[in-house]
User: Fold these one by one.
Assistant:
Number 1:
Amino acid sequence: MSSPSLRDRVNGFLTFIWDGEEKKFLGRGGRNWAEIGAFYLVFYTILLGFFVGMLAVFYQTIDGDRPRLTGESSLLKGNPGMGFKPMPDIESTLLRYSFQNESGFSSCERNHDSFKTYIHFLLLDLSFLSKPHESGSFLRLGYARLQEAQHVTGISPLTRTYAKATADGVAVNCSETNGEKTEEQACAVDYKKLTEQCNEENYFGFGTEGKPCVLLRLNKIFDWIPEPFTEEDVNATDMSDDLKQKVRQKPNNVWIECVGENPADIDNLGADIEYFPEQSFASYYYPYLNQKGYLSPLMFVKFNSVERNVAVMVECRAWAKNIRYDRTEKEGGVHFELLLDP
């Protein structure tokens, strides 16, 4: 028996698509297609109804104003963490700045890897790149200028958000009302005091003055309120004597203290450290209840006397009775290094 020719195969395929004699499409008649169509219509309608029903049941367990899991049941276990900016690299906590020399150039060739890193962060600020370069050469911006741009772009987006919120006036100025507010109101961050000495104009301290500012912020935890220290609690802690005196005056606040991790770091960091707008987060910022216009309080820590050309390990810790601290698990504080090259 000979194999069918190409023409026979094509004719057989076309007949399968549409058989004019038996009135069949793809091998099925009209009634057969109607039965299959009705089956799948009913099947997918029931499936859709089941999905919508399960979704409705799921949404019944969710509150639009508060998370389902809070306190110790939440992911953070009711213990706020702390973050800092700028963070040049997610894999590193080193904040490094090299001062520009007299000729306006820095050691780009000797720091090629760092140069590429700062180029990457500079690209985040398109407005900076849009300005014409006076020298006509991108490299003539200088390594120090790139570092300034890196630190500014690391902090500016966040501070601009707070500046806009202050201008909008949605939150209440609780410092003028002695913390009095309704449960639906949020307290505004004093942006003017916050940026009094740490702002874009002075590159947040990473400019030629070499007094870097680091921005700190606690994580938002729903319905969390700092528990005040008692006199016995204060005496039992290892906080500095100066901080103990401040805590006794305002025990309800969340206090922040930045110190060198080791004796050598303490000496190299120096004692001249300033906090803006103050060294604590006022208690009236808490609790966070998803209020309209709520923004977590911020704090700039300005290091005025860091020893140059020495890597200084710094630890900033949050103090409240119900803030657990664990350096290994990075709970209740942050760690970073400062390096100011000559």
Note: The first strand starts at residue 18 and ends at 19.
Number 2:
Amino acid sequence: MLTSGNFSRSKNEKSKMASIVLKQIFSRTATASCCHVRAIAQNSSRSLSTSQTLLSNKDAAEVQPQQEEQQTSKNGGFFKNLLRVRTLNPTKESHSSLLSSKETVYEIQFHAVKPEFMEDYLNQFSRFQGLMHEKKTGANLVASFTVEIGDQDEAVHIWEYKGGYPVLNNATEIYRTDQDFIEYRLARNKMLRSRKNQILLAFSFWPKLEPRNGKNIYEMRSYTLKAGTMIEWANCWARGIENRMTNNEPVGGFFSHLGEQYVVHHLWGYTDLQTRKETREAAWSRPGWDECVAYTVPLIRHMQSRILIPTPFSPLQ
């Protein structure tokens, strides 16, 4: 039986035990809170340190180009020479006037032909280019190709208009209104999947496109440049092309004046693909070629290479 004295002692013991448990709970809670506060403080310290580091890196990143630019300005060198043409006042002359003459303009045509009509298409185009001459349009076909490697079943034609845009306008008017040409277009359009053209100017430092002896293959390397970089491109290639004259491979260099803008076409001639390989590899052994590549590659947004075979009626063989 539980007496009053035993009950009193039991009650006191329970009170002591409860007091001990509460002290342990508060002690653990306080310890956890302290640890949490210390963790927050450490994280804050790390964040501040990281922020200071990033700020230092940002400052360094901003200072480094300025130091490099100052060093480049002091030392001069190729890059400074490359941009020297920028000292010309852009309001005095257009970029195209600095790079070419508008006394002769060119048109390049790309015709995607339905595969089953390629032979008929070439036969009709041969008669068409003859009509352009007979009717005294002023348009002169200087090169005509089919694509061997690249976009298959594509024909590429290059027309020359000596006398510039007045001659081009006259040729276009005859082409649009003459009945023979109207009938030709109706027949031709049924054989095509798509077509596009560009009006080009020739770079003044490239050779003039002229007929060649023997049988050749041609490579057209087409580049879409970043807007505003045509001057840099031309200024660099005016020197770089000297490294590609050994086998007389440069045929013609052009840039777009109407149509898709900032497009460059370089046309190269080779005896065969093996000659192309050897010629291109040999260029790397000549001083200056590596600089031309290094400074022009960053200017390119897109590039394409086509291996071309002259058509039977092409003046350029």
Note: DSSP finds nine helices and eight strands in the chain.
